[in-house]
Amino acid sequence: MAEDNAINQRVGKLILQRAGYQIDLVSDGSEAVAAHRNQPYDLILMDCQMPTMDGFEASRKIRELDGKQPVIIAVTANALVGEREKCLEAGMNDYLSKPFQADQLVGVIRKWAVSRDDSGTPE
Per-residue pLDDT tens for 3-30? Predict the structure, then answer.
């Protein structure tokens, strides 16, 4: 999970651990790119607005890397028209707007984690 807000990090981690998922935390996009380069992830929750490198740029950089590509789910407080399209254009696979309920977060993770084909889309 790439998230700069410590409270959101704790809440997301708790929700996902209770749902049985392993989670690592980073605080900005450059850390997310480095973490994925060091240990490729299956799925990344990517906050769109972070310091140093935002989630859009981080997603584009991850997509440029060779090797295993993760599912990237945008997590953003921007519910503006066109925001979903902006996320998809940056290489993200899906979109979750804040604030979200625990079941919404777990649901979007399950949608992508249960089974996906090589194209990165759910089966």
Answer: 999 999 999 999 999 999 999 999 999 9
Its pTM surpasses 0.85: yes
DSSP 8-state assignment for residue 77: S
Q: Kindly report the CA angle at 118 between 113 and 119, in degrees rounded to 5?
A: 95
Q: What is the three-class DSSP state of 35? A: helix
Which tokens in the block code for residue 27? Answer: 């605080």
Structure-token match 């194209």, residue found:
119
Among 1.25.40.10, 3.40.50.2300, 3.30.450.20, 3.40.50.2000, what is the CATH number of 6-113? 3.40.50.2300
75 burial (CB, 10 Å; 0-12 / 13-18 / 19+) is buried
Task: Return the biggest CA–CA distance within the chain.
Answer: 35
Question: What are the start-end ranges of the E strands in 1-123?
Answer: 43-47, 71-76, 94-97
